[in-house]
Amino acid sequence: MLVGIAALIVGMLAYSTDFSTYDTVSSARNKQGTFVHLIAKLDKSKPVEYDPINNPNYLSFYAVDSLGAQTKVIYHNSKPADLEKSERIVMKGKMGADHFECNDILLKCPSKYKDDKGQLQKSMVEQTSTN
Amino acid sequence: MNFEGEHLFPGQIGHFFVILSFIAALVSTVAFFTASVQTDPNQKSSWLKFARNAFVLQVAGVVVVFTTIFYICSNHLYEYMYAYKHASKELEYKYLLACIWEGQEGSFLLWTLWHSVLGCVILFRRKLPETSIWQAPVMTVVSFAQFFLLMMILGIYFFDIKIGNSPFILTRNEINAPIFSQPNYLSFIKDGMGLNILLRNYWMVIHPPILFLGFASTIIPFAFAYAGLQTKRYGEWIKPVLPWTLFSACVLGVGIMMGGKWAYESLSFGGYWAWDPVENASLVPWLILIAGLHTMVVYKATGHSLRASYLFAFLTFGFILYSTFLTRTGVLGDTSVHAFTDAGKSINIMIGMFVAAFVVPSLVMLIIHYKRIPTIHKEETTNSREFWMFIGSLVFFLTAMFIIAKTSVPVYNKIFNTRIAPPEDLEFSYNKIIALVAVILGILTAVTQYLKYKDTKRGYLLSKILVPTLVSIALTILLGIFYPFTYFKQGTGFLGVIYVAAFATIYSVVANLFYIWKVLKGKIINAGASISHAGFAMMILGMIISSSNKQVISSSLVNGITVPGSKDPMTKQQDDPRENLTLIRQLPTRMGEYEVTYQSDSAGHEKGRKFFKLLFEKKDAVTQRVTQSFHVDPDVYIMKDNNMSSNPDTKSYLNRDIFTYISYALNDDHNEDTSQFKIQELAEGDSVFYSNGFLVLDKVTKNPHNDRFNYKATDVALMAELSVTTKEGKKLKAYPVIEVDQLGIRNVDDTLYAQNLFVRFAGVTDKKIKLGIKESDKLIDFVTVKSYVFPFINIVWLGLIIMALGLLLSMIRRGDFKTWQSALIFLLGTAGLFYMFLLAN
Questions:
Q1: ipTM of the complex
Q2: Same domain, B658 and B693
Q3: Quick one: B656 and B689 in the same domain?
Q4: Residues of chain B with C-beta less than 8 angstroms from the C-beta of A17
């Protein structure tokens, strides 16, 4: 009985399994065209291009991963508001010849986390010193 | 150092009562357990009495603690970290409770509070002979859970190990900042951080308490199952626990869908369900609970499925604890948008212990007693009701296992150090399985009740089920003809599955209605099961229709805008349609069947909040007359550093919702206007040209009093009325104003955004006025939106309400209630559900 249940679950999982992987820029380049999760940071030295009046569905920027490798990213959607402030970006998409074609962006921003003590410290100092 | 202005007394009171409750919980656990194993009736009753007092003391303590936190937050005592972190002065009164459960500590406390209430109900209803047998073992489990929950907020050191995070810690002990070296540091802290703006919503006030009541209530079936094993009255616990299980199924189900309604209404996820790990973590225990509910009913009617009932009762609460672990230890990391963050290693370890302390012993006990749990060796026959009910339970259970297995991927990654990420199309990876589940459950809930327990005559089933089957087939065909599904994204195979699922759910609704009418002869009080089945099926049907025919009306595809290069360079397929549309102020823009104009913006009374007024107009294709027109006011919070968060606004019709949110509303610095006003002098009737047309000064009015301005006769203000004619021959009006008061001269400029034209009433000469005209080279005011149409979404909410009422009805019938109590429960439930899901907003 239990074995049967386990087999059924594994079957369902196998049927629905199209898991992907977390990658760096270079490992994503090695499998161009495959869907990956790219973990990187915004390269603040390069321009972020977003002109919502001409095209609200085109954002391009440069991302650099923890190994220092860099790629251009194109995202056909609106610009996430806190992109510039993010500490880490998880991008879902496919690596192409000259850029990373991104379908979805998840940002890790320091401000969202009140439970982070360092951040609390910073905002407390900011708040009390301006007054 | 002596600090000025601190209120240390509430914190001391609060912390004292946390410790007191914690000890009382420990004492009542031991005492209830001792009472449960005592055989001597005198000893038993004196232990029981002692244990009850300890439990009541614990409850009183928790109430004091809760009140104290509320006091601290509502009085803005920022010397306390909890108030500083979660409260702020601008916070509306209704959110003061919400800021208690925004934090980890407060939400644990809420859970504890509900356990206290439920525990008191068990104690209060002890007069019933059946309950008195169960009281000691059941309350052992409840008290033990209280022990763990209170430990999470204990905040004391035990040999250098910190146990729990107290909600009463002081800000100055937690944060290092220069101000804390001054005795009057409190006068520098002007305000707290406040409730996260994403959570400032009335759902934040109501959803957590209901969901936590749902969580808390699952401990009762667990505790009764434990009591069944401990007292070796293996089958007797089912009868008293059934109403509790029904209650739990109702409240937890409603709580989960409230989260969905919240996400749908006010978060910009674009839907009510996203298979987010946090959503899944609360759904999984509900699915197992429903499986357990059905096996319990089977046991009561036939004696089958007792072992499965034990397993499901244990696993329901087990998975509540596991989901606590998932959502509160930070293990979900990158996969969820709204999990709590890591609360520190010691809390994580304690949560782990909490899970282990309940899951491991219960499963070990089940294995030990397994052979002794009575079972019927004869297999159920396939034409019996219990056989198919058991299959249904199994489907629920397997679905739960499937969902949790997928949701737990980050846990495997942690344990095995792998880097498995979610698939490309996360929703579809769930939906393709769930669609099949919907088919099976639809058909099962349609047919099974027409079967009888033990054995059913073949002819009986056929004669009863024939009409509902034909009606459902006809309805599905009608649906396919008049309102075909347009979900082609996953190919025709899946579209076929959607139609089959639609049939199965329609079948279930129809068959259950027929059952109430023909078999139960319309006796509603007995129809709890049929009503909840019909409601469940209706909810799923609503989900199928609204998601299959959801339309993104801001999409470039809908509006016929072709984006060059929108084919995926790698797959050569049409890429996702571009879903955002920019609206320039006052310029009507086509969106689906509507013409949408961004008319104005206005500030909310909270800091940084900005509302955008969007006018939707539907015009008759021939006459161009406006046939339908409404406003939506989506809003954003714009914080410092150009951070933004968006709240949608929805226009609801009976058969569809038009859902709009702001996807971008920040005017970057480089967009700043640098052009200057050119001043010209005009008399009434004079005209002046600008690059795109000309304007005429019609007249000048003193102290205008109209729909735009409201000056009194004593004011000094002049308004110029200008008629603007554009090159295209369009006529517009502009009304710049100049006013003088004690502070000096003030210009109220008027802007014709669609013309990029600014006009200023700059001053007055003898007979003329000075008019400033500025033509900006930048379009400065715009907003980027996403807009969806969800058809027939109300079927989802109505289905949920019907399901919840069906469960309540069953609970009332199976529980031991007086008539007035039953009526009260049912009336309150109905009113609350209708108000929350259909009437509010």
A1: 0.82
A2: no
A3: no
A4: 423, 429
Single pTM value for the model: 0.86
- Statement to judge: residues B601 and B746 lie in one domain: no
Lowest average pLDDT, out of B140-154, B456-470, B766-780, goes to B766-780
Residue A51's pLDDT is 81
Assess whether B660 and B677 both reside in one domain: no
In a domain, B56, yes or no: yes
Asked whether residue A7 is domain-assigned, the answer is: no
Number of domains in chain B: 3
Mean pLDDT of chain B: 87
Structural domain that includes position B587? 581-667+784-789
Decide if B580 and A35 are in contact by the 8 Å CB cutoff: no
What confidence category does residue A112 fall into, taking pLDDT thresholds of 50, 70 and 90? Answer: very low
Output the domain CATH number for residue A75: 2.40.50.140
| Residue A12 belongs to some domain of the structure | no
Residues 6+ apart with CB under 8 A from B129: none
Distance between CA atoms of residues B169 and B156, nearest Å:
11
Give residue-wise pLDDT tens across range B223-276.
999 999 999 999 999 999 999 999 999 999 999 999 988 888 776 666 788 888
- Report the residue of chain B nearest A32, measured CA to CA: B570
B402 with A9: Cβ contact below 8 A: yes
Chain B residues whose beta carbon lies within 8 Å of the beta carbon of residue A94: 570
B734 and B605 in a common domain: no
Q: What is the mean pLDDT of residues B133-154?
A: 94
**A39 is a domain residue:** yes
Q: Helix H segments across B78-201?
A: 81-86, 95-100, 104-124, 129-152, 171-174
Question: A25 to chain B, minimum CA–CA distance in Å?
Answer: 15
Top-confidence residue, B339 or B169: B169
Task: Inform me whether the C-beta atom of residue B645 falls under 8 Å from chain A C-beta atoms.
Answer: yes
